[in-house]
Amino acid sequence: MAIFKYNSERPFRGNPDLHLHYWGREECAPGHSVGPGVRDLYKIHFIHEGTGYVSVGQETHILQPGQAFLTYPHIVTHYAADMAHPWTYSWIAFTGEEIARLLSRTSLSPGHPVFPMDDSLMPALYDRLTAASGRTDSLDLPLKAILYEFFGLLLSTVPAPADLIPLPRQKSIYVEQCLHYLHAHYCENVTVESMSSSLKLDRKYLSALFKKTVGLPPQQYLLNFRMAKACELLTESACTIGEISRSVGYQDPLLFSRMFKKVKGCSPKEYRIRHADNDIVL
Quick one: pLDDT band at residue 171, thresholds 50, 70, 90? Predict the structure, then answer.
């Protein structure tokens, strides 16, 4: 049975530097599976017992006790417990403007999301966060302090290769500008050419820098982001498929449906029916 703990403190602004949304723990049933699907949050699972696997794109990783894996927002991921020895894991889910910069200083990426746990903080992270949440005053501060402590440890556990440290700040700014541009214009006819022209950067250079930092080409990131927004509209609104199609940048609803099925494995209509009774997807 899954145990979820939520941060009742709301961030003071729309996209804070770092914010913990929830954490939890589960002793999974044999074959318990999540996805393939996308989320709006970063999420890290810590494996305490048993085994399982995580798949991102064409890459599949088998995990053992003492390992952890990171899932990225808007990137299709699938993970499942082993049938014979299902895993027990805990997790944290978070967002924030600082995360991309912090992760750029590690060797982690969507294609390489697995890393080793340390001997003390990571195995006990669920218990520490739960104990901190028992405070009645300034709840967000102790939770955030623990999260920053975790990221400090992560940077030393899986540092980026020497030739990537430090990532020049100007390059980091370019990637941040790309992300802001895609998030602001995903409902329009966005191309890498239009984005690079707007940012006054060479198209090939921008595409290579984006993929190196984010782990995906801009086109694939945009597709995943659009489909994540489409999923929100399918489950949280009464908009027609055509209205949703145009809302996420597709003037042709048939093309939208084909792309949606390519990413999600089912049609938009089927997705809406499947999630009609779900209040929240975690």
Answer: low
216, two tokens: 């995906």
pLDDT tops 60 at residue 164: no
Using alpha carbons only, how large is the chain's radius of gyration in Å?
Answer: 19
Task: Specify whether the CB–CB gap between 206 and 196 falls below 8 A.
Answer: yes
pTM (2 d.p.): 0.61
H-helix or E-strand containing 95?
strand 88-95
Q: What span, in angstroms and rounded, lies between the C-alpha atoms of 77 and 100? A: 18
User: For the purposes of burial, counting CB atoms within 10 Å of the CB of 48, is it exposed (0-12), middle (13-18) or buried (19 or more)?
Assistant: middle
The answer to whether 153 and 132 have CB atoms below 8 angstroms apart is no
Contact between 68 and 61 (Cβ < 8 Å): no
CA gap 198, 145 in Å, rounded: 38
**C-beta separation of 83 from 31 below 8 A:** yes
Q: pLDDT by residue (tens digit) across 119-158?
A: 889 999 999 999 888 765 666 688 888 999 999 999 888 8
| Beta sheet of 52-56, edge-to-edge order | 33-37, 77-81, 52-56, 59-63
